[in-house]
């Protein structure tokens, strides 16, 4: 639908945009990214004819854009510029209706049912119908922005050029507007080219991205192929980290500010763990980067307070999450700052130890109730039953872990726990075979993200050796403690 080949141009003799080439198909949304001054808006203006090109071609439906009359071009291309001037006062509806100008014919143009429907639909899509009789100058900047997007949609052109369409909009209206634009593109085969400042929004809503650097194409492709850490760092000269979106196969970017000197040095020690009447708690001096399978705040995050709560063997609550949340609140713990897990083992039976090497230190804490032991290879024979987790393992690491090291630390700790169960001959009562864990064990890996860097945590790495030894020894001791409490079971 839109083909750009070798396009160069700008405001003077020296081109701002140089030798840019790309294409956009029907129903596709292309996002243009780049730092300030990279030529994003200039490129859009050259394509739309607002600025002259010095070289290259713009082809629309197989014909050069230069061969279209102004009105013919407007029937093909709708443009939302970055800035809008209001020389005259118009109502919202009248402003949106200006988008129908390319479809009017003759000296005395008549307003058709199709024109009216297009305007009403556009106002409905952008959520501005209730303002239709309001003078546009009385609206906020964000509301005005939606009016001009509606004007572009009312034009019903097969190509839509947008320069920062979410400018001035709050996050709810950003979402509504971009959902509308994307749906219009996919449902009506509209070709959309949009400039974005927000890389994350562009990655979420665009089918492909074009990244500009100093007026030239640095990269073009799917969001996964463009929003790359090294690519963004090079083009924007900023430290970033990319990660997948939690619900979509799209990359998202996080800025990494320079906080050197702002974070005080600290470490986690054995003495930081306190054993109370009904739970074990560790409160760190600063938040730790954490991954866990806890009851409260499972997954990855940054937390300061860690709870291992002992409950009765007959604990049976319909809404465990709510009951546990009420428990944390009643004890004065901050919900967004706390990771909490539960065990059938009394807190006094926790086994805590600190392990050191020349590369760093770790703290291990384990409670090991084995009454509901399970051999994972035989578990498919069992009926589902809501056991509470009984083997809970904490691993606190004084060091800096990579993402890979966090996952490897979990594997190493699990292998060490399983080996302890094997050596202690813990049996699955259903199958009579050696158990590998319990039905709902919980594991937590937390790191200070300071000091020695640990890219890996497999069993033969320095960190892995500490984790393997520590989890194994503490699990064995915790099993002994549990058995003694149960009368030598």
Commentary on this structure:
Helix 4 (about 115-125) packs antiparallel against helix 5 (about 140-155) and helix 11 (about 405-425) packs across helix 12 (about 460-485). The mean pLDDT is about 90. A hairpin with a 2-residue loop joins strand 17 and strand 18. The strands form 6 sheets. Strands 13, 14, 15, 16, 17, 18, 20 and 23 form an 8-stranded mixed beta sheet that branches. Strands 6-7-8-3-9-10 form a 6-stranded mixed beta sheet, sandwiched between helices. Strands 2-1-4-5 form a 4-stranded antiparallel beta sheet, covered by helices on one side. The chain has 12 helices and 24 strands. The longest helix is centred in the last third of the chain and has 24 residues, at about 460-485. The chain is about 30% helix and about 30% strand. By secondary structure, the protein is an alpha/beta fold. The chain has helices at about 40-50, 70-75, 90-95, 115-125, 140-155, 170-190, 200-205, 225, 230-235, 320-330, 405-425, 460-485; strands spanning about 1-10, 15-25, 30-35, 55-60, 65, 75-80, 160-165, 190-195, 210-215, 215-220, 240-245, 250-255, 275, 280-290, 300-310, 340-345, 350-355, 360-370, 375, 390-400, 400, 435-440, 440-445, 455. It is elongated, with a radius of gyration of 31 Å.
